[in-house]
Write a structure and sequence with these properties.
Layout (H helix, E strand, L loop, with lengths): L1 E7 L4 H10 L6 E7 L6 E5 L2 E5 L2 E10 L4 H12 L7 E7 L17
Antiparallel strand pairs: 1-5, 1-6, 2-5, 3-4
Helix pairs in contact: 1-2
C-alpha cells in the first residue's frame, strides 16, 4: 500500500475529488494548509498599505491506495489539479506498512 499526499490549489479540490471518484477512489482526507514553493507568495494591498503574503492557502489530500492503483491516481490528480500556472502543487508517495479499519478490525488491503 502507498500513501499519496497531494498539495493542490483549493479551488481544484472538487475537480480532483470527482476525478478520483470516477476511478473508484472514494476515501480521502482533505486538510486546509498554508505553504509556498517557488512562487514565494505575493503582495497585496490592504487599506492603502502593501504587504507580502508569504504563505498561500492550499489543500492537502491524503489517500491510501493499493500498490497497483498508485500510478493511475497520480495521473488523475495531476490532470484534474493542473492549471498550468505556478503553484499548482506537488504529489508525494510514501509506503504504508499497516492499516486497520477501526470499526471492523480489518487490516491490510482489506482496510483500504
Amino acid at each position: 500500500m502507498k500513501k499519496i499526499e497531494a498539495v493542490i490549489k483549493p479551488f481544484k479540490l472538487d475537480d480532483v475529488r470527482e476525478a478520483l471518484s470516477e476511478i473508484g477512489i472514494t476515501g480521502m482526507t482533505a486538510i486546509e494548509v498554508k505553504g509556498f514553493g517557488r512562487q514565494k507568495g505575493h503582495t497585496e494591498l490592504y487599506r492603502g498599505a502593501e504587504y507580502v503574503v508569504d504563505f498561500l492557502p492550499k489543500v492537502k489530500l491524503e489517500i491510501v491506495v493499493k500498490d497497483d492503483t498508485v500510478e493511475r491516481c497520480i495521473e488523475v490528480i495531476t490532470n484534474a489539479a493542473r492549471t498550468g500556472k505556478i503553484g499548482d502543487g506537488k504529489i508525494f508517495v510514501t509506503p504504508v506498512e499497516h492499516v486497520v479499519r477501526i470499526r471492523t478490525g480489518e487490516s491490510g488491503n482489506d482496510a483500504v
